[in-house]
Write a structure and sequence with these properties.
Blueprint lengths: L2 H6 L11 E3 L2 E4 L5 H17 L16 E6 L2 E5 L2 E5 L13 H11 L7 E7 L5 E4 L11 E7 L1 E6 L9 E5 L4 E4 L8 E7 L11 E7 L3
Antiparallel strand pairs: 1-2, 2-11, 3-6, 4-5, 6-13, 7-12, 8-11, 8-13, 9-10, 9-12
Bound molecules: N-[(3-hydroxypyridin-2-yl)carbonyl]glycine and fe (iii) ion (FE).
Length: 216
């Protein structure tokens, strides 16, 4: 991390203030520099090697367009029975540990001593999108959800704490970090589209999004 960020981040107590807020979602633009992003991608390759990406079924019986896997004590999962957290990958192996680089981001932007239980890894190809949703499969909404964007730019849309109504959008770039906490913890949000070729971080293109959560 840069010197400026070190001085802003307090790992135990005070969280740094973001420069930008979108309906209460804090946006830390450029939180990770290029070297930090590359190191993170290398760590994520190890995660994906241990727990390969898969396309879960939605409860409505269609495979999700985004491919995903997880690291941590819990992984996020979905099938005909619904959305939930599972202790192991569909292959039966335990989820790999959350890489230390990822925990450092969490500590830096939240100021919390409690570390996340789950790091969901979402991979978007040129055509993937994510419909408007709330993150509400966790037990305690007083903990924020943190998300990290890597690779191609993505158009992020934020709505309201109930479905529908006016929305606002923002292009997320590689290295940006979002914190969804407080009044914004249960806000509806989604990804409308990615901009293929907008980043050279991933050799074959695409976008990775990490979401970090305290589960129980
Ligand atoms: C994405 N993000 O950026 C999707 N969830 O690909 C999310 O669903 C999300 O950015 C909770 C908190 C922050 C997020
Ligand atoms: Fe989400």
């Amino acid at each position: 991390m840069s010197e400026k960020k070190e001085s802003e981040a307090n790992e135990y107590g005070a969280a740094p203030r973001s420069d930008l807020s979108l309906r209460g979602v804090q946006v830390f633009q450029g939180w990770l520099d290029g070297d930090e992003q590359s190191a993170l991608v290398a760590a994520l390759r190890e995660v994906i090697r241990a727990a390969p990406l898969f396309s879960p079924m939605t409860p409505y019986g269609r495979p999700m367009r985004v491919r995903m896997t997880s690291a941590g004590r819990y992984g996020w999962y979905s099938d005909r029975k619904g959305y939930r957290y599972e202790r192991s990958h569909p292959s039966g192996v335990a989820w790999p540990p959350i890489p230390p680089q990822v925990l450092r981001i969490w500590a830096g932007v939240t100021g919390l001593a409690r570390m996340p239980d789950c790091c969901l890894v979402n991979f978007y190809d040129a055509k993937a999108r994510m419909g408007m949703h709330q993150d509400r499969d966790e037990t305690d909404y007083s903990y924020p959800v943190v998300s990290v964007s890597l690779g191609d730019d993505a158009l992020f849309r934020v709505g309201n704490t109930t479905r529908g109504g006016k929305t606002e959008s923002l292009w997320l770039k590689s290295g940006d970090v979002l914190v969804m906490g407080g009044e914004a913890r249960l806000i509806y949000h989604g990804i409308d589209r990615v901009r293929p070729g907008s980043s050279t971080l991933l050799p074959n293109g695409g976008r990775i999004n990490l979401t970090l959560r305290v589960v129980d």
